[in-house]
Design a protein that fits this description.
The complex is a heterodimer. Chain A is mainly α. Chain A is 85% helix and 0% strand. By secondary structure, chain B is an all-alpha fold. Chain B has helices at 2-5, 7-33, 40-76, 79-85, 98-113, 116-128, 135-159, 163-180, 186-195, 201-215, 221-224, 228-274. In chain B, α3 packs parallel to α10 (201-215), α7 (135-159) runs parallel beside α10 (201-215) and α8 packs parallel to α12 (228-274). Classes of the chains: A mainly alpha, B mainly alpha. Chains A and B meet through α1, α2, α3, α4 and α6 of A and α2, α3, α5, α6 and α8 of B.
């Protein structure tokens, strides 16, 4: 009991240290550049205490729950030897975690406004909603494909940098043809897809796979899934912008 | 106390965000793998901790960081403030936005250090590399990348250069670096682009981009407000590879130095023996 308390105390201290830089940045700008004291100082301090507490719980739960389950599933799929189910799982994981992502929902709504303003779609609620939903499904689908492709890479031992370069070339070529309004949103959509829960889970999956298949190095082959998940949505959203 | 009154609603919202993931995991576990999960209780407890952790984290962000961050972003891009700190005379020049660039840089670095997804990846990288990749070293490298990315991104909004020029240049740098970096770091570096921008950075950065696009003449918030996240996810790839290249160079130099020292001592020994 004493030991786990010590552990908790250590991670609490770690979270506090992680948060210090941003607190210093805000304090500096408030006091020396904008020359004001922040409104609701007490509320801000309570909020920061919550952030520290939340970060501590999250890291604690990460080591206990998300990392072990991700790795144990990767081992189980590898020893079962069924590539079909592994790839199905990869796709579901990518699609399922992205479709409900709040950041993506927000970006899709903003994008529909951009499209309406630019006259790509009608400025009616129904048309905008359809556009936003289409975009969301496109991104979720592309993340599903991305994780599947990344897992396939680990299985087949394809070199990651050539695949990423092909992705870059596709982005550059499509940028030349896509409407200007969609480009910013497309580039951003790569960054917003990977949430706080998806990242640890997908990382654990990749590393678990790479360490249970012989001849793979977890460092070289285990990472890279997130990279696909943040590159492929750009390609798909650019294409979506061209088709609509 | 109204701070805590949001807690149940937010807990529920987070629960529904996690639900599809839980369904997928346990669905596959029971229907396909058909094996009992080892330490099921511990895993479930861990997931509960993650749920509570994210809820508290978001609650705190909404109470503390986001309102302050948003109001600061709008104040720093406010024309009155810009007039009071300007360096040039006549029309506002891009240099007059210097506090915006500094703020973007500092906020990028600060939020990235606190980003939970990055902590997770850094922990794994440290474990897998057998300690060769330091948790803090990697996070610092990513943080610098995000900081530079955001500073560049705000500069782009101010001057109005199309963003794909920057992104394509970034891609070229990444490709060149890929061939000169230590092989072990490349996949991790590619990953670090995606992990930087999740819970903390995105909302703050969106506010900054929007505020800036609203105040700079000739920019449309809907079109130019986007793009900062893209910068924040491209630059860390470059900075992580650069970090690996630098530490490799340092190691090589240290190794060469060690060789020279060894040579010197063996010479001394030889001389002693000759005597």
């Amino acid at each position: 009991m004493n030991q786990s308390l010590q552990h908790l105390f250590n991670s609490l201290f770690g979270s506090l240290r992680d948060l210090l830089p941003i607190v210093l940045v805000i304090a500096f700008f408030q006091l020396f550049v904008l020359e004001q004291t922040p409104e609701n100082l007490i509320q801000t301090i309570i909020g920061l205490a919550f952030v520290v507490l939340g970060l501590t719980f999250f890291i604690f739960g990460l080591e206990q729950g998300l990392f072990p389950i991700g790795e144990s599933m990767a081992h189980a799929f590898a020893s079962k030897g069924s590539a079909f189910w592994l790839l199905t799982f990869s796709f579901s994981l990518g699609f399922g975690t992205t479709i409900a992502e709040p950041a993506l929902i927000a970006v899709a709504e903003e994008a529909s406004e951009v499209a309406a303003q630019a006259g790509i779609i009608e400025k009616a609620e129904l048309a905008m909603e359809a556009y936003a939903d289409g975009l969301r499904y496109t991104v979720a689908f592309s993340v599903g494909i991305a994780i599947t492709l990344g897992v396939l890479r680990i299985l087949m031992n394809w070199p990651i940098h050539y695949m990423i370069m092909i992705g870059y070339v596709m982005v550059i070529v499509l940028t030349g043809f896509a409407p200007d309004e969609i480009i910013g949103i497309a580039y951003d959509s790569g960054g917003v897809t990977t949430s706080t829960i998806t990242v640890p889970l997908v990382t654990a999956l990749g590393i678990g796979l790479a360490s249970s298949i012989s001849g793979r190095n977890p460092m070289v082959d285990g990472f890279g899934l997130i990279a696909f998940a943040s590159l492929l949505p750009i390609v798909f959203v650019l294409a979506y912008g061209m088709i609509i | 106390m109204h701070v805590l009154s949001d807690f149940p609603a937010l807990l529920l919202a987070t629960f529904f965000d996690i639900l599809p993931i839980a369904i997928i995991i346990f669905g596959f576990q029971f229907l396909v793998i058909r094996k009992r999960i080892t330490n099921l209780k511990k895993v479930l407890m861990g997931m509960l901790y993650v749920l509570i952790g994210i809820t508290f984290f978001l609650l705190g962000l909404e109470q503390a960081l986001f309102p302050v961050g948003r109001s600061m972003a709008s104040q720093l891009t406010n024309p009155e403030f810009l007039q009071s700190v300007r360096l040039s005379v006549g029309e506002l020049q891009w240099t007059d936005y210097y506090w915006v660039y500094i703020f973007a840089f500092a906020v990028g670095a600060g939020t990235t250090i606190a980003e939970p997804a990055l902590i997770a990846v850094a922990m794994k990288a440290n474990e897998v590399s057998g300690g060769a990749i330091g948790v803090f070293g990697l996070r610092a490298a990513v943080a610098i990348g995000v900081a530079i990315g955001l500073a560049l991104g705000t500069y782009r909004i101010v001057v109005g250069v199309p963003m794909h020029y920057f992104i394509i240049t970034g891609y070229v740098i990444v490709v060149v670096q890929t061939f000169f970096s230590p092989k072990l770091i490349v996949p991790l570096a590619y990953d670090s682009g995606g992990v930087t921008t999740s819970t903390v950075t995105v909302p703050l950065v969106a506010a900054l981009g929007l505020g800036l696009a609203e105040t700079v003449p000739g920019r449309s918030p809907l079109i130019d407000g986007f793009g900062l996240i893209a910068f924040a996810s491209l630059c860390p790839i470059i900075s992580v590879m650069a970090y690996a290249q630098l530490s490799e160079m340092k190691n090589k130099r240290a190794y060469k130095k060690q060789l020279k020292v060894d040579e010197y001592y063996s010479k001394l020994k030889k001389r002693d023996l000759d005597k």
